[in-house]
Design a protein that fits this description.
The protein is an all-beta fold. The chain contains one helix and 14 strands.
Length: 163
């Protein structure tokens, strides 16, 4: 049996319990580069835990469509993970609260152009899912020798639909 999950627009306030929405809002914090560049400073808190370091990778992700079957979420207990779209394709962002090691109360969001996300360490989340077209992403996450992936498969999957 499938359960319905309605995807809402991605906003910093709604996403705050799970991570950071990285986007340009308001005036720059600082003008740099001979007055030709505005710096919107420190938009995400990166956390790579002990024994890890920051790494930058490129991901090529196949397109997904709504309705979307959410049957699995994952988390990274050793570090945060940021997704920065390069191709401008919106992405479906699914996150869930944690209840004693089990994801509960999933929420779904759809990003807008100019939005990126940074997931807090240990946050349950869906897989990278560009909507409507393939997408390329810069991913900033933990590089280390210890395992940093846990998966949870839902016995009853969710069907994500647009709001």
């Amino acid at each position: 049996m499938s359960r319905e999950l309605i995807a809402a627009p991605l906003t910093a306030a709604a996403f705050a319990p799970f991570g950071d929405v990285i986007e340009v809002t308001g005036a720059p914090d600082k003008i740099i580069n001979q007055g030709m560049c505005g710096r919107h400073h420190d938009r995400a808190t990166l956390d790579f835990g002990p024994g890890g370091r920051a790494g930058i990778s490129l991901f090529d992700a196949k397109a997904r469509q709504l309705p979307y079957t959410l049957d699995m979420v994952e988390r990274h207990p050793e570090g945060s993970q940021a997704f920065v779209p390069v191709s401008g394709v919106p992405m479906l962002v699914v996150v869930a609260e944690d209840a004693d090691g089990v994801p509960v109360n999933p929420q779904a969001f759809i990003s807008q152009p100019g939005q990126s996300i940074n997931l807090h360490r240990g946050t349950w989340h869906g897989v990278l899912a560009p909507l409507g077209a393939p997408g390329q992403y810069i991913v900033v996450d933990r590089i280390g020798d210890t395992p940093n992936l846990e998966e949870h498969w839902f016995e009853d999957p969710f069907t994500v639909v647009s709001g």
